[in-house]
Amino acid sequence: MSDSAVAKKSKKQVFFSRLLSTVIMWALVTWVFIAQSELGFSALLALLSFGALFEILKMGGGKIPRMTMWVTLVISLAYMGIESSRSIPQSSLMLGSLGLLTLLAFGVSMRKAPEGDKTLLEVLVPLVAFVLVPVMFYSSSSQILFTQGDLTKGAWLMLWLVAVTKFSDMGAYITGSLVGKTKMIPHISPGKTWEGLVGGFAFTQLAACGLYAMAPDQLSFFSGWGEVVILGFVLCAVAVVGDLAESVLKRSLVVKDSGATLPGIGGILDLIDSICFTAPVFALWMGIKEIF
Predict the structure, then answer these.
(1) Residue 134 to residue 143: CA distance in whole angstroms
(2) Is the overall model pTM greater than 0.85, yes or no?
C-alpha cells in the first residue's frame, strides 16, 4: 500500500474516531441535561475538571515534583467540593485556594537549590492548571448553571455556551480541512487557517441563532437577536484564542497531545480547552447584565 493511501486511511480513521468520541460526549451531556439533576451537572463538571487538571500536571512530566502534583490535586478537589456547596463566598474561596497552592508549591520547590527556570516551572505549571480548570472552567460553568435561580434556564444557557464554543471548533476544523490553505499562526498551530477561522464564525452563528430560534423562552436571558449575534461573535473569537492557548501550553511543555482519553480528539483538556476561556467571558457578561 502506498504512503498516500496509508495517510488517507489514517485521516479517515481519525475523522471517524473523532466523530464517535463527539457523539458519545454529546450523548452524555444530553442525558445529564434531560435529567435536570444538580448533582449530575456538578459530577459531570467535576469529572471533566479533574481529568483535564490531571492531564496538565502529567504534561509537566518530570518538571513537576510528585508532591506538588498531589498538593495541586487535593487543593483543587477541595476547592471544587466547597464551590459546589456554595457555603463560602466564591471570591474568598478562590483567593484562599490560590494563595495556599502558591505557598505550598514554593515550599516544595525549596527542597533543593534553585535550578533557573526549571524551579520556576515547578511552581507555575500547577498554578496555570489550577487557574485554567478549577477556576476558569469549573467555577464559571457552575455560576452559569446555578446562579439564575432556575436550574432549567441555567442548563439551557450552559448548553447554548457549549454549542457555540464547540461549533466554533467544529466549523474551523471542517472548513479548514476542506478548503483551508492560508496558514493563520503556523508557529503555534500549523493546522489553523484563515479559511477555517471564517468557517468557525459561520458555524458559531448557526449554533447561537439556531438554538435561540428553537428555545426563545428557555433562553429568555438574551434581550434579543442582536445580543445573540454579537455574543456569538465574541465567544467565537475567545474560543479560537482558548484553543491556541492550549497549543502554546503543549508546545512549551514539548508534548503533542494532552492525553488519549478520547479517540480522535485527544485528552479531556482538548475537549474543554476553549470552554475554559468562553465560560468566564459568558459568566462576566451575565454579571454585568445583573448590575445594569
Answers:
(1) 12
(2) yes
